[in-house]
Amino acid sequence: MSSYPNRIRELRKSQKKSGVQVADFLGITPQFLYNIEKGSRTLSAEVASKLAEYFDVSVDYLLCRTENDKDDRQYPEWAASKDIRDFKTMLEEDEPVMFDGVPIADEDKEKIKRVMEAMFWDAKKKNKDTYGRKKTED
Question: What is the pTM of this model?
Answer without folding.
Answer: 0.50
